[in-house]
Each structure stands twice: as structure tokens, then as C-alpha cells.
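Encode chain A's predicted structure.
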Amino acid sequence: MPSLDRGIVIWFTGLPGSGKTTIANGVANALRTKGYKVEVLDGDWVRKTINPDAGFTFEERRRHLLRVAWIARLLARNGVIVLCSFVSPYRSVREEVRKIIEEEGIKFIEVYVKCSLEECIKRDPKGLYRKALAGEIKNFTGISDPYEEPLSPELVVDTEHDSININVRKVLEYIKSFLYQE
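Encoded structure for chain A:
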């Protein structure tokens, strides 16, 4: 069973419905079959369990994501590969998250899950875009709140043009050099 002294944190960011969690789960499954310790921290799950009172204003999102960063840091410090799937729409907050992780000497990999707003609206797996467009949801990323694309992510995966399997393989290929330890 492979063992890491330190895990890594892979932070998937992108519009709602872009495929972040689907890719994170695919990567997690592949890594688990190889014997790695893996945790997926997903926005919906964290909001339901750890941080149920988190709102959607800039400051509420910021606090929410910084809490997640500290959890990811603790897990990675103990040899866990942590896959974080969060819209995390603001560059400045993603940079704060990166600093929290990296100051512990843990590798942070930002993966931009690229998909056009039009395609995400078509997919709308939870019906949230429909509600946001009807004015029923405030501060919805991509509709009434901005999404700031990463300027220099470590990896970009395109879920609009490439399959989930291709994108999972791209992530696995990118991270393999960080996993091998003698």
C-alpha cells in the first residue's frame, strides 16, 4: 500500500455544474484502487455537515473556504490526498486558500474545471440555474455573482469538450510525479 508522508491538496474550481465533483470522485476512485488514502471535500457535503450556516456573500464564502482549507491542510499533513470540489469563485480567496496549504509545506494544485456558462445552464443538474435566472436565488455564481477564472492554474480540464474519463486521466497524469516516493 503506497504511503505518503505528506498528502497533496487538489482544488477543483469552476462554475456550478461544470463537473468538479464528478472529476474529483473519479480521481479519488482511481487513487483508492492504488491504495492511497483519499478524501473528497465537496461543497454540497461541507455545507450540509460541517458548515451548514454558510451563506453566499463574498465574506461568507471566504470564511467557508478558509475553513475548508484548514481541514484539507490537516488531512494532507497526515498523508491524505485531499480533493476539494468548490466553486470558489474569487481569485483572492483561492490565493488565501493556497497560502494556508502551502505554508505547511503541502503541495497545492489548482485545477480549473472549464465549462461555458451556457453549457452549465443546459446541464443544470440541480435546477439551480433555472431558479437563479428566475430571481429565486441571490448571489448565484455566473448569474448574479461573478466567477473569476484562474489566471494560472496548474491544470485546466475542459468538461465541455472532453469526457469525464479523459479529464480524470489528465488529473491523474499531472499528479503522478507528486505521488511517487521511495
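Residues 8-115+148-177 form a domain with the Rossmann fold fold (CATH 3.40.50.300).
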